[in-house]
Specification:
With 506 residues, the chain is mainly alpha-helical. The protein has a single domain, classed as Sodium/glucose cotransporter. Helices cover 74% and strands 0% of the residues.
């Protein structure tokens, strides 16, 4: 297994070196790859950076322990990704180029709303840095768990190895390195999510459905935590839930509109006309990969329930199956799929966080216009700083990958999602409305997810996922404030009309 992983690391670093020589001569190339990504690279890069470690650890773990009641998250995500390609992708690609060639999401917001005082730009950058640091830590946690469970390394050592490799190729190769490694990593993830569930299913001795019908947490976990104890049926789609619970789970799909590391791929594709091809590739990859992750959790539960084996952490079921069923060399490549999921997302998040620190904060307050080389150097330092902070947050080995991802996903979805949609489709949106949307969306999520407002000290998120109330609150703030403030900037209206004209040409 070590040989397989070593080869994988060498390939990733090699891609980083290639990208360093191809596209890092200026800040635009480093941050956006020159807007020249092929449709296949853009699609798989968006998918790989989206899925992270939760696709091979968090989602299979939830299915392994709770069964079909967790499938609603996956359904919501597929629907959200489909809507994102239609509502956001083409217009964002054209609009960001028209709006002074905006290369970051805060940069786009600032140009779109004539943000002369940099209020919106800085607020957006702060949101990105806060939530991406949290998001990045989820990937680092997944890496630590992988090395701890697979190679008997300490959790901390696994954390440092994961962070170290991804920092190196991101540090030097920039956006092109991130996108090309994402493409390779997306292919590895796809193959692995087909191989593991198929091989596991073929090893089952008992009828699959019958075993699941009788499975419970006592059979599946060697030492269950309080949060993992339940009496739900594995085959009940509506177990432990109501209509509100299902809506809450499907609300995950709303998060796609506001994820900077995903929608920046739409900005980087070589032409908006090629987004239709990217959509077909991206949605096909995503749908099959998610189905593979769901089935991995279910067949894993059936396999464990009929064997004398057990796992201590449900989020490690993919790791267990890879090691138990496959030759060590093959298992090494399957485990590389987890690293691929982890690294593809961490690298994207590090780059977007770095770009916000440099483009949206440093440049806004620099007393002089910094040179391109200076910006490149500062960007690389910022990549390192964000990685270090995320690693410190991830030092708690009891952290849940899925929980960390869910909080960060909700933060971006509520803060940026409504604003991205309204900015692309509503001409009357004003600067004040935009600021209100970002602030209200972010604060609603933080209040909902982290403030213990209930009598037993729990947060409101135990009853309803914080993304939906945050998304609704942000949308209302945008509309109400825009209708009661000054008219939008005339330049923004010109760009809006130019975007419509460009899209109609196609």
């Amino acid at each position: 297994m070590i040989i397989s992983l070593a080869l994988y690391f060498i390939v990733m670093l090699g891609i980083g070196l290639y990208a360093y020589k191809q596209s890092t001569s200026d800040i635009s190339g480093y941050m956006l790859g020159g807007r020249n990504l092929a449709p296949s690279v853009a699609a798989l890069s968006a998918g790989a950076s989206d899925m992270s470690g939760w696709l091979l650890m968090g989602l299979p773990g939830a299915m392994y322990l709770f069964g079909l009641s967790k499938v609603w998250i996956a359904i919501g995500l597929v629907l959200g990704a489909w809507a994102n390609y239609f509502l956001v992708a083409p217009r964002l690609r054209v609009y960001t180029e028209k709006a002074n060639d905006s290369i970051t999401i805060p940069d786009y917001f600032a140009n779109r709303f004539d943000d002369n005082k940099n209020i919106l730009r800085v607020i957006s950058a702060i949101v990105i840095i806060v939530f991406f640091t949290l998001y990045t830590s989820s990937g680092v946690v997944a890496g630590g768990k992988l090395f701890e469970n697979s190679f008997q390394m300490s959790y901390e050592m696994g954390l440092y190895i994961t962070t170290g490799v991804v920092v190196v190729y991101t540090l030097f190769g920039g956006f092109l390195a991130v996108s090309l490694t994402d493409f390779v990593q997306g292919c590895i993830m796809f193959i692995s999510l087909l191989a593991v569930p198929i091989a596991t299913y073929m090893m089952l001795d008992q009828p699959f459905m019958d075993t699941l019908a009788n499975a419970n947490y006592q059979q599946l976990l060697s030492s269950p935590k309080a949060s993992e104890i339940h009496s739900l049926s594995m085959l009940d789609w509506f177990a432990g839930g109501s209509t509100i619970a299902i809506i809450s789970a499907m609300a995950w799909g709303l998060g796609y509109f506001g994820q900077p590391h995903i929608i920046v791929r739409f900005m980087a594709i070589d032409s908006h006309e090629n987004l239709a091809k990217a959509r077909k590739i991206g949605l096909s990859w995503m749908t099959i990969s998610i189905i593979g992750a769901l089935v991995t959790g279910l067949v894993g539960a059936s396999f464990i329930a009929n064997s004398e084996q057990s796992v201590s952490d449900p989020e490690t079921i993919f790791i267990f199956l890879s090691q138990f069923l496959f030759h060590p060399f093959v298992a090494g490549w399957l485990l590389a799929a987890i690293l691929a999921a982890i690294m593809s997302t961490i690298s994207s998040q590090l780059l977007v966080s770095s770009s916000s620190l440099v483009e949206d904060i440093y440049k806004s307050y620099a007393k002089r216009q910094p040179s391109s080389n200076e910006l490149l150097m500062i960007s690389r330092v910022c990549v390192l700083v964000v990685a270090v902070v995320a690693s410190l947050i991830a030092l708690d080995s009891n952290s849940s990958v899925l929980n960390l991802v869910s909080n960060a996903w909700a933060g971006f979805g509520a803060a940026f999602g409504p604003l991205v949609i309204f900015s692309l489709w509503w001409k009357k949106l004003t600067h004040s409305g935009a600021v209100a949307g970002v602030v209200v969306g972010s604060l609603t999520v933080l209040l909902w997810a982290y403030v213990p407002l209930l009598e037993n000290g729990e947060t409101l998120s135990v009853y309803f996922y914080e993304l939906l109330p945050g998304f609704v609150a942000s949308s209302l703030a945008i509309v109400l404030v825009s209708l009661n403030t000054q008219q939008p900037d005339q330049q923004a209206i010109k760009w809006f009309n130019a975007t419509n004209a460009k899209l109609q040409e196609a």
